[in-house]
Amino acid sequence: MTDRVFSTDWRRAPAPPRIRENEIHVWRAQLDAEQALLPGLEAILAPEEKSRAGRFVFPRDRVHFVAAHGILRIILASYLSMPAKDVMFRYGPQKKPAIGLDHSESTVRFSLSHSHGLAVCAVARGREVGVDVEAIRPEVAGEDIAERFFSPRERAELRLLPPDRRVEGFFLCWTLKEAYIKARSVGLGIPLDSFDVSLMPGQPKGLISPDSDRWTLRSFQPAPGYAGAVVGEGKNWELRYWDWNLGLAQK
Q1: What is the three-class DSSP state of 167?
Q2: 174 inside domain
Q3: What is the pLDDT of residue 22?
Q4: How would you label 212-240 residue by residue, b for 16+ Cβ within 10 Å and e otherwise?
Q5: In angstroms, rounded to a whole number, what is the distance separating the alpha carbons of residues 152 and 146?
Q6: With 70 as the cut, is the pLDDT of residue 203 above it?
Q7: How far apart are CA 49 and CA 159, in angstroms?
Q8: Residue at 242 is within a domain
Q9: How far apart are CA 24 and CA 46, in angstroms?
Q10: Which residue range is the domain that position 156 belongs to?
Q11: Among 102, 115, 118, 177, which one is least packed by beta carbons within 10 Å?
Q12: What is the mean pLDDT of residues 40-55?
């Protein structure tokens, strides 16, 4: 299934948000802007999440983890109509989290990603979803990484790009591949070079794999200097882009 690179129209989310079965909601949050809220965000985390946060070596990484996972809980709670601290998760074979089956709204699916202080979260109802965000860093040896992890077709497309577009092309491809394996809940269970995605900026996003008709891929711009991708199960769903706001926690 192919689709275009969609322009991104971020809006303040209604509280509470309502999601239809033909929609995927993508949220963004600036993690460094939420440091004043950090104690409250940490307080709503589960013990396992707090334990994971405590294992980070660098304080900034810990702050970003706590902020991202606390905000995720508030976002999910707004769909589930329950306190954020009461949201329970279950984990699949590849450790992908999902809403606990004892919640009445267990058809809600989600995916979380954060990079260099920016978090994105995708929420869907009744369909699998994956999301990825990456800060576009020119110092990353994208072409070397591509030689190790991209398919032959993807590497060829990367070499066809003008030199000044290859960094963008690399991160475009990388986020699409990461979002796809998250949506499939396979983690590193499939090699990244075993399927193809298009990485040509401005061109339709395509997937070549045995189950390509099952998924739709879209790229989006989370913020200047970042690349983002969302992959959803099925066809003909619509995207809504929401800015995180504290009003969600006050409903």
Answers
A1: helix
A2: yes
A3: 96
A4: bebbbbbbbebeeebbbbbbbbbeebebb
A5: 9
A6: no
A7: 41
A8: yes
A9: 26
A10: 10-32+107-250
A11: 102
A12: 96
Assign residue 24 the CATH number of its domain: 3.90.470.20
Rounded to whole angstroms, the Cα distance separating 18 from 243 reads: 15
The residues near 84 (Cβ < 8 Å, ≥ 6 apart) are 44, 70, 73, 74, 76, 77, 249
Answer whether 181's CB lies under 8 Å from 130's CB: yes
Q: Which DSSP state fits 76?
A: H
Residue 3: its pLDDT value, please? Answer: 43
User: Amino acid identity of 208?
Assistant: I
What phi, psi does 79 have (nearest 5°)?
A: -80, -30
Beta strands of 45-107 (E only): which ranges? 89-91, 97-99
Helix (H, G, I), strand (E, B) or coil at 192: helix
Q: Note the pLDDT of residue 39.
A: 95
pLDDT tens digits along 126-160: 999 999 999 999 999 888 999 999 999 999 999 99
102 within a domain of the structure (yes/no): no
Mean pLDDT rounded to a whole number for the chain: 88
Whole-number percent of the chain with pLDDT over 90:
67
User: Please, is 26 exposed, middle or buried when counting C-beta atoms within 10 Å of its C-beta (0-12, 13-18, 19+)?
Assistant: buried
Domain count, the chain: 1
Task: Round to whole Å and give the CA distance between 209 and 36.
Answer: 45
* Start-to-end CA span in the chain (Å): 38
SS3 breakdown of the chain: % helix, strand, coil, rounded to 5? 40, 25, 35
Round to whole Å and give the CA distance between 206 and 218. Answer: 9
- CA torsion 126→28→250→40, rounded to 10°? 110
* 2: β partners: none
**Short-list 202, 128, 148, 192, CA closest to 172:** 202
